Amino acid sequence: MVGSDTSPMEPIGTGPSGDARAAIEDFYVEERTFPPPASFGAGALATTRELYDAAEADLEGFWAKQAESLVDWFEPWERVLVWDPPFAKWFEGGKLNVSYNCLDRHLREGRGDRVAYYFEGEPGDRRVITYAELAVEVNRFANVLKDLGVNKGDKVAVYMGMIPELPVAILACARIGAPHSVVFGGFSSKALESRILDAEAKVVVTADGSWRRGNPVRLKEGVDAALENTPSVEHVVVVRRIGEEGGVQVSMKPGRDLWWHDLMASAGTECAPELMDSEDLLYLLYTSGTTARPKGIMHTTGGYLTQVAFTHKYVFDLHPETDVYWCAADIGWVTGHSYIVYGPLANGATSVLYEGTPDYPDKDRWWDIIERYKVTILYCAPTGIRTFMKWGTVYPEKHDLSSLRVLGSVGEPINPEAWIWYYEHIGGSRCPVVDTWWQTETGSIMVSPLPGLSVLKPGSAVEALPGVRGEVVDDEGRVLTRGGGYFTLTHPWPAMLRGIYGDPERYKETYWTRFPGRYFAGDGAKVDGDGYIWFIGRVDDVMNVSGHRVSTTEVESALVDHPSVAEAAVVGANDPTTGQAIVAFVTLRSGEEKAGARGEELRAHVAMRIGPIARPKTIIFTDELPKTRSGKIMRRLLRDVADGHDLGDTTTLADPEVVDQIRTMAEERLFAED
Length: 674
Ligand code: WT7
Fold this sequence. Notes:
Largest sheet: 7 strands, mixed
Distance between the termini: 44 Å
Helix content: 25-40%
Structural class: alpha/beta
CATH topology of the largest domain: Rossmann fold
Mean pLDDT: 89
Low-confidence stretches: 1-18, 648-652
Radius of gyration: 24 Å
Strand content: 15-25%
Bound molecules: 5'-O-[(S)-butoxy(hydroxy)phosphoryl]adenosine
Number of helices: 20
CATH class of the largest domain: Alpha Beta
Shape: globular
CATH architecture of the largest domain: 3-Layer(aba) Sandwich
């Protein structure tokens, strides 16, 4: 039983289960359970299975009710769901504006003085921004964009650090109906370039730089490089974050490049929100797939806003009048889109927005922030938690963390050890930990406990949320009620992706063909005897590094792009801190030297092509790569090499000697990061 009340939970799965066979081996049995702390239960928004029951009885009626209560509509919808598999429309015919819902509505209802963001810059500068102040900035920037010729439907690329101008820019886009495409500020200019090209962005919003561990990251420089090959871009708007006194000088191209503060100074403070259809595009967000070409994931307005507002409210048990909420992700990822910007603002929440790294100026920066702002809800990634574990409890112990009441986790499986550490040392054993599973594509949290209700098991995301239908299936697509398999979704959900920009076929192929009639997310999962879901990582060739998806193919392409590389095979090896670490097996062109310096050069090359997140941790030079007779690289074997496991039966290898060689090389680790 998943809930803490006494009603029995429906068994997971509706299909035949008799013949289903576990497709992925069980790994680990975790037996500790944690009911909601007594102190927590009473005031919680959900303490019974009422929401689950309502959604179970009438899924569309359930979402319609949420859409009515959480979102303000200019015109009502005609149909809740139009499902033409695999294409869904939610709240068809409904009209709304997302920025109106995040701002104007709160002003109209007397919440203008509430703090929207406590901004904390890495150097220690601070800004308190109320809803009323945020609204003025957004209206101004919406007018700026219009004056630059951005019309409804035009795409705007945004490439900046975590400063208040970032949410301002994207809300302004939402206000005028110009879909934004935020490119994570840690990505390289090449990555930015390909995303600008794919979306044909008309304007780029950026900053001179962003602070990271006391040093400026030169963003405008990256934009300049990207823009050499992007004819669609007419203007670049540049926020001055660092300034010349911070050591960053930018060159402004006359006619093209404009300073944010110049434009804002003369912009009007009122811009009427565009009437948007529920199915109009709100944004594109690019994510890695199994091929080198990133996918522009499309999200629309009505269904998306409904589900992110719903999940933000119930998963974190949000009490917007009193909570101080902090999602420590970057707005460049979907977590930030849904749970720093749209969900919290739609719900009128007060959030912390932090620019920098957790170890600047010291390793207690986060705990200092929590103490000072009296943060009540913290949402972060397991990779961060494992790093904090490594640093030790002395840092959190220096601070009063007693304001915390809910802890969230996202991005990758959280191992029970990290869960317990988070629960004890950060949450003081009094805060439920909500392990939230979702993806860029799902737009919104899909599988998660509810903190006032679920009995938690460390490492389990527990069960599909109300209004979400998830099932674990075997290789044949038969529903598993117990054991390991593939996690699938059987019913469309409001915040689901509407497709891959410009490529409907790829959308069908990627998500809907492996198991007919089901959305397959690429994740393995296990169901235990109590119906709990345990995610166990990706089953495709996508690595999960520090909670971010990195495609093996993309890294391989970047390596092969280097003139001295002949061939490359990339795998994700288990890594205690980052979840997976990128290990690259590289064959060089003849005559090229396999020295350590070459390894550094290749790592830098990948970082330049894709971004520092994709920089291989280890490069192993080898004369040949292990391949099957049909020429397929044997990734599993390479992963084993990388993980230091036994290689087992290698008779399918074209050249068995390679294995020995690779193994030796791996042991020697010609080039390793640490
Ligand atoms: C992939 C999606 C969702 C925002 C951050 C990443 C993995 C995410 C969990 C979790 C186990 C998780 C999955 C998923 N993942 N949350 N709670 N437990 N795995 O978004 O870049 O689209 O990556 O992250 O593998 O497919 P993303």
